Amino acid sequence: MQRFNSARSPLLWVPTGYFTMALGFMMLTNVSAIMFKNLGMDNGRAAQYSSMFILAYTIKPLFAPFVEMYKTKKFFVLCAQVLIGLGFAGVAFAMSLPDYMLVLIPLFWILSFVGATQDIASDGVYVTSLDARSQSLYCGIQSLSWNIGPIVAAGGLVYLSGRLHTDVFQHSSTSFGPAWIEAWRIIFLLVAGLTLLMAVWHWRVMPDGERASNTPDSVSATVGIIVDSFRSFFEKRDVWRMIAFAFLFRLSIGFLEKIGPFFMVDPTSKGGLGLSNELLGIIYGTYGLAAVLLGSLLGGWLVARRGLKSTLFWLCCAVNIPNVTFLIMSIYLPENLYWIGAGVIIEKFFFGFGSVGFMIYLMQELAPGKYTTTHYAYGTGLMGLCGLLTGVLSGHLQEYLGYVSYFVLVMVATIPSFIACWYAPFHVSDQRTQ
To answer: pTM of whole model > 0.85?
Structure first.
């Protein structure tokens, strides 16, 4: 084990590295949707634009080998973090322009590819700088640090945007429009400064990361590896059933992910709950995400004890059935914050509980083979593609159907998940503790 007082102990760079990754990802793909909504954009476009930024993270296996070819992995981490910090500062300054959306959307799009590159390089540093024992030792810290990012972004920063808007700039919390620019400019400047600070920190403490033994040394060799990984992926036994599982398991969540926060902040006249950004940050971004973490821990414990094959269907139930809480809230429009918080916590807890099954299935069934890491990335890419497509459609469907009918559609979207889960193939011996 590496010494904790070493200048480059993993405790110095693993937590901050994965927190920085998650913070950038959440700002681009989740918090941006809330910002667009605050600025007066309709649900259709707000969900569509923020979902489009997922594309870079979905296709990152296609350009990951090129990152391996040049310089060190640390070099790409630092470059990406500097560019993200400067880019978020650019977002803040662009908001002062008359037609700021014409600048913001392309800038976010570019930053999403920079963020995906940061993910590739950061994972590379982790995998090549730590031996197998250390990777296992710090895996929990890695996962926890990544999950702190969403809590800070979707919880703390959304809450802060609301406090700035109402307490500092003296605007109404229930109105949407350009008045929100002042608050969100400060938020993006804070994230920019924090990201640049992390770049300086990682320049001091992060190891370079070693080149993998099979790293390609030319563009033609890289293309050859990509082609071979695709070919071998589609040669897997029952691959199409595994693809269906990877794409459809979280289908209903994809339809719910963007619209859930919109439902929270939309006024009751539009069928929403009329919450402020402060309450959204506390209920949805803090308590809800904490429930996801707790659910994930308990779901992992269940799978470890009972095995994936015997629990997968129940995990699918956990992901899908609690979505009904949003349908119930859209019908009754509760005003009591305890009931609203309970609905969100139930849905988020069981989502975390059941999603463990998805990730373990990819690791144990879809990924194994010659290109284990790449094929696992294909599986998560299919999940990202599902999120992208459902996110792009979700806002437009919600505006057409209204919240009650839309949440009925979310429940209907659980059916393909159950079918894909029921027919998911198992070819690897189930591992369990008893």
So the answer is: yes
